[in-house]
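Support request, priority: normal
Reporter: lab tech (M.K.)
Component: structure prediction queue

Hi team, I submitted a job for Laccase from Quercus lobata yesterday, and the status page still shows it as pending. I've pasted the exact input below so you can check whether something in the sequence is tripping the parser. The sequence length should be 616 residues. Please let me know if I need to resubmit or if it's stuck on your end.
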Amino acid sequence: MEIDVHHAALPRSPPHRHSSSSPPPGWVRLAYSARYMGLKNMDLGLAFLGYLFLDGLFLCMAAEHEITFDLREKVVTSLCNKSESLLLVNESYPGPTLRVRKGDTTYITVNNNGLYGLTVHWHGVKQPKNPWSDGPEYITQCPIQPGNSFTYKVIFSDEEGTLWWHAHSDWTRATVYGAIVVEPAEGKLYPFDKQPDGEHIIILGEWYNGFLRTMLEAAMRIGADVAPSDAYTINGQPGFSNDCYIENITIFEVARGNTYLLRIVSAVMNEEMFFGIAGHNITVVGQDGAYLKPIPTSYIMISPGQTMDVLVTANNSIDGHTSYYMVATPYSDSGGAPFNEKNTSAVLNYGGLIYNPLYPEFLPDPKNTDAADAFTKQIKALATEEHPIDVPQEIDERIFITISVNQLPCNLPEGEKCGGPGGNMHASTLNNISFQNPSVDILQAYYWNLTASTAPPLPFDTDFPAFPPVPFNYTAGDNAQYQFPSLGTKVRMIEYGQRVEIVFQGTNIGNPENHPIHLHGYSFYVVGRGHGNFDTDPNYKHDYNLVDPPRVNTIGVPKNGWVAIRFKADNPGVWFMHCHLEKHAIYGMAGVLIVKDGDNDQEKMLPPPKDGMPKC
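Reply from support: The job had stalled in the queue. We restarted it manually and it finished. Here are the results:
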């Protein structure tokens, strides 16, 4: 590991800094930065900006950081000595960890030295009034082209816990990803009975043999699924269950008697995962950058896009074992879609040589929906005076969205065959509309139409329906007549300050399964969840949890079931909403919410960066 500590110059003067070119009288500005490059997943040193009073007193305030992401291809060897050229950040796989405190702001310059354009998203960071740095391709920006750079201004607000960052262009997030650690504000402690003695970052991912972009392009041309991955990984390594050598496994060292905070990120592309540690119970204390009521358990179920904070105490000695496997296994409730059925593992080691680690016998099998539900139903917000929640009790706008896996007629030249069911092409939808990316990004088009006297036509329609265009029995056995959707680039306009409820309804169209839905720009409250059809009768009283529902940014909608979420639309901007299974996102299971500006300046979007946005 190389660490370079040096005085850092600011790339520009953000508008909210002190307007003078010098600090206020009596203060000295400090700036430090560190850059990490290497193949181990380590914390990336961040530039710290603060003010030091001349008499030695320190003012506690949010800090600002400056770092650089250098993107380029690098040959990486894994999965029993398989070598592939991967697009990486700072030559690290997984990418570097960003460590900040609650309320900080981070400037991240992405230098794209790769082979194709891409964007980066800061998953779970709300970016108040600042969709310009949210990152989804053709939604809030166009790709950063090879040889170009772009600086993201990442504004942290009330998030606290574990989040993550990843590429947001096609499937590039398969290798371009890393953790974000948001520590409590200066002087604050974790709201746990015992403060952890240490922590480990655990990132679940997937490994593909072959050049994934070529595989993706070939599949999309004929409307087929991309083949399942060749291995799941923990911090980039596949582990024991793939019959690889010990150097292909990640080892987490612990000291007996100590308690550790495990920060778990699911960067998996297409499957939910069960996770547990042999010989140890764990306690879940956080999800998606917010605290939970503690959940003692032997396993978790985590969906792509989600993060969980887990406590574990190294206090076991079973038959003399000092090493214990931590294992992740897939959970797939799909009826027939192919998936990688292998496990991935790492080792929790109490020190010394690793010999015959204990393997867990308790993880649920890949089709165990009861086990997935049993864990998910326990998740509730901490909801204390220091970590309060604010669930909308009354609703101004109700939106009902069906989620489906569909088909499109084959459009290849005569003699060529499509790769979807029945010779058709795969598609996926929200409210039976398959989202189509525009050729220019939605945010810039929307902003210029608001502010410019003349502007080109909008590349989207504002008529995304608040209810399915054709209601039907969503979970019935035969829904083939609804198999073929419409195509469109449609957004839903929402007035600032509205209290919104969205119900996501899974359908039995095509091949139903659990869908992890992610909403950018917001954390939302999961107030209800169930199997079967949601009762839309306005007089029906649902058994909602309005007392301590979890506040998350990604939620799994159960197979042939529903989830109800609530939030207050108080973050103006253009915000993407999509399934976090990449096999569905690429075929249109997505939509856009545009929250309009409010009346005063504190309720309006920030202007675009002075240095401009990437060109389309």
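Residues 201 and 263 are 5 Å apart (CA to CA). The longest strand covers residues 64-78. Let us know if anything else looks off. Ticket resolved.
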